[in-house]
């Protein structure tokens, strides 16, 4: 009997050992892949350095830094290095607004001019529409003179209001979704007005200190911050130092600095009920709809969409010298945080983040459907407002042509012609994760961070 028990224990230990070896092997495989991925970009001078953190089901799978915090001093990225995080800031601004809603100090349905003096020319724009980029507010700065003026102004975040007010709206509130930094600058000013505190002080008192986020703060050009890394811009002739940045220009749209470990603290707290009440959390992660009922993918400071079969709640950031990406996959309890101290030839934070994602998850490609429409009927030129449109007024024109078993798309003024190959039915094509719907003389595209509606030119 003792021999049988001993044999069972031996087999159980052996099985456990094999399982642990498999887990260790998987972790090592991920690290080896990440090492190769980042080192290749460092060796080719596409990035100066980076930090990657992967956390799943209460286990740290990877937390590693690569390359240099200072190319000039050949100083490596330190453990828990601090990077500018750009538009990842927006989720902190959104959470701050929702915290004020939670305490009854404002409402998402309030017209924002209740708190900020601004001539909307008769339009009502709600706090919610500032949060989800559907306000239609003009962008700023839009020219060299404006940028220079803001760079050397003592309060450029307040100057933004004056610069934007006379400009034409991009679209009527709620008719489209065009990513808008100005709206988030306005939200920061509203936070200050309602809370009675500077934006950065409110975030520190409300979120950073209670959560123990000691590496997160408002960016500064003068303050000495331990473990803060330098930023660089990619150039074919070699990496260049980042341009000077007045942090009060991006302000509440992109001014924060943080580390991957602090961002893990934040992301886990946010998505596990430690930051907001359940109703406010659901409001933050739930995209609304345009005026015509069209669903979008941008919620409030976060995008929420199906990424090749996986629910993803995330946000990226790009600012002078830095690129960042914070991803959360709720169904897989997976967190991936990527910080890069370079603006590169591609969206570097997002590029590395997704390379790691698809090493861990089985990417499910969109299924091709049988083409069941007459593509000749949708040929033509479609024009409308986009972010960074080619025309002087910010509009963009796209030509659609019918080919055998599909269509091509060309942005007017560009030589490149794309063939839209993945038809999924209902007049809809997928281009990566971009969803393109062409019907009723309209070209609609859900680009996750934007939703454009271009109308057919019937002349």
TrEMBL record:
This is Serine hydrolase domain-containing protein. PANTHER family: BETA-LACTAMASE-RELATED DOMAIN-CONTAINING PROTEIN (PTHR46825:SF9), D-ALANYL-D-ALANINE-CARBOXYPEPTIDASE/ENDOPEPTIDASE AMPH (PTHR46825). Pfam families: Beta-lactamase. It comes from the Bacteria. It comes from Sediminicola arcticus. GO terms for molecular function: hydrolase activity. Keywords: Hydrolase. Its EC number is 3.1.1.103. SUPFAM superfamilies: beta-lactamase/transpeptidase-like. Residues 35-345 form the Beta-lactamase-related domain.
């Amino acid at each position: 009997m003792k021999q049988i028990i001993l044999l069972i224990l031996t087999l159980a230990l052996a099985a456990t050992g094999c399982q642990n070896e498999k887990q260790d092997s998987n972790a090592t495989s991920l690290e080896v892949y990440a090492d190769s991925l980042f080192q290749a970009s460092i060796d080719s001078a596409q990035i100066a350095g980076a930090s990657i953190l992967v956390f799943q089901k209460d286990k740290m799978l990877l937390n590693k830094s690569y390359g240099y915090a200072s190319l000039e001093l050949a100083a490596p990225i330190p453990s828990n290095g601090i990077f500018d995080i750009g538009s990842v800031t927006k989720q902190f601004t959104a959470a701050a607004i929702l915290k004020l809603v939670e305490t009854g100090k404002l409402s998402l349905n309030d017209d924002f001019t209740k708190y900020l003096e601004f001539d909307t020319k008769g339009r009502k724009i709600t706090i919610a529409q500032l949060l989800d980029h559907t306000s239609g507010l003009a962008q700023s700065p839009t020219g060299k003179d404006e940028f220079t003026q803001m760079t050397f102004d003592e309060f450029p975040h307040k100057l933004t209001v004056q610069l934007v007010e006379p400009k034409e709206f991009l679209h009527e509130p709620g008719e489209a979704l065009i990513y808008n930094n100005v709206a988030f600058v306005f939200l920061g000013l509203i936070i200050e007005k309602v809370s009675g505190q500077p934006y950065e002080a409110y975030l520190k008192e409300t979120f950073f200190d209670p959560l123990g986020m000691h590496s997160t703060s408002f960016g500064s050009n003068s303050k000495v911050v331990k473990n803060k890394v330098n930023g660089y811009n990619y150039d074919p002739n070699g990496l260049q130092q980042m341009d000077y940045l007045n942090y009060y220009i991006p302000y509440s749209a992109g001014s924060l600095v943080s580390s991957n470990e602090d961002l893990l603290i934040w992301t886990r707290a946010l998505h596990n009920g430690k930051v907001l009440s359940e109703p406010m959390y659901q409001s933050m992660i739930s995209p609304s709809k345009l005026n015509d009922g069209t669903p979008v993918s941008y919620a409030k400071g976060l995008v929420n969409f199906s990424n090749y079969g996986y629910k993803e709640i995330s946000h990226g950031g790009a600012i002078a010298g830095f690129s960042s990406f914070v991803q959360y996959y709720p169904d897989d309890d997976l967190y991936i945080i990527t910080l890069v101290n370079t603006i590169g030839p591609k969206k570097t934070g997002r590029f590395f983040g997704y390379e790691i994602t698809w090493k861990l998850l089985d990417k499910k490609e969109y299924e091709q459907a049988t083409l069941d429409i007459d593509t000749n009927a949708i040929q033509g030129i479609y024009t409308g407002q986009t972010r960074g449109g080619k025309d002087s007024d910010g509009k963009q024109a796209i030509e659609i042509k019918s080919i055998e078993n599909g269509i091509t798309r060309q942005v007017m003024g560009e030589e490149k012609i794309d063939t839209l190959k993945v038809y999924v039915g209902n007049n809809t094509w997928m281009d990566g994760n971009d969803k393109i719907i062409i019907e009723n003389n309209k070209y609609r595209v859900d680009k996750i961070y934007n939703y454009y509606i271009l109308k057919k030119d019937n002349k």
